[in-house]
Predict the structure.
Amino acid sequence: MNRDRVIRITKYLVDFMFAAGILVTLTLPWSIRWAGTYLECLAENYGEIVTIYFVLGILALAIIWELRKMFRTVLARNCFVRENVAALKHMSYYSGLIVLMSIVRTIVYTTIAMLVVILVFVIAGLFCQVLAQIFDQAIQYKEENDLTI
């Protein structure tokens, strides 16, 4: 597969995730109520669970939104721009907020899966911060080269 095809497929996947995320987040009150018929802990903490997952859904959508903005620069073949540095920093902050909200969720009820989510988003947040610094440095080099020419 050539590079452009992989990028376009990935962009379509991110767009699908964004649309699906909106649908899932908006239907949380009904889906949590339905799942509560099978899982007692969801029924017992219905209000808290809906609120927590709604906030987590919004934060996840914010991360995907930033990814979609970055894909526009990739498709335009102009990746090393300040907007991508800002997007990576935003994704890092959203990941941190997901970690905090997930910690709140573990207070309501703890699962191994949520502990894994916390670890994944700690790593993702740190990774985004490092990438933002790398992109920022690359932009500085690019601007210096542009001035030299």
Q: What stands out?
A: Helices lie at 3-26, 28-36, 40-44, 46-75, 82-108, 112-148. Residues 112-148 form the longest helix (37 residues). The mean pLDDT is 92. The chain is about 90% helix and 0% strand.
